[in-house]
Design brief:
Blueprint lengths: L1 H25 L6 H36 L11 H20 L14
Helix pairs in contact: 1-2
């Protein structure tokens, strides 16, 4: 919510600065050349603050949502069923190798007679 409120406030601030600059450019207000340069500089800075910061905030918001809910998106889905099938196959192979070792006798704790 804070990111969206910040975007709305930035849009309002940029609209006010844009309106003041347009009034000065149309000659409605009595502005000198240095004041006009200050207005254009303010317009450029307000544009940067109103466009770049919200884009970064929205990007960070999107990243934080992906971090907070990592398994809801298809790109981050873990193939658990494939892992389980592979693990079952490995366990069966390990049991077979444990019961029938290839080049040695099966180990045991008691001596055979």
């Amino acid at each position: 919510i804070l990111v969206h409120v910040n975007n709305i406030l930035n849009a309002i601030a940029f609209g006010l600065v844009c309106g003041i600059t347009i009034l000065a450019l149309m000659g409605i207000g009595h502005q000198s050349d240095s004041n006009l340069a200050n207005l254009l500089t303010t317009l450029f800075l307000q544009f940067c603050f109103s466009m770049l910061a919200p884009v970064l905030y929205l990007a960070l918001l999107d990243v934080s949502v992906c971090v907070a809910q990592p398994f809801t998106y298809q790109d981050a889905r873990i193939p658990a069923a494939r892992f389980i099938v592979g693990m079952e196959k490995d366990l069966k192979s390990a049991k077979h190798i444990g019961d029938n070792p290839p080049h040695w006798e099966k180990p045991c704790f008691k001596k055979k007679d």
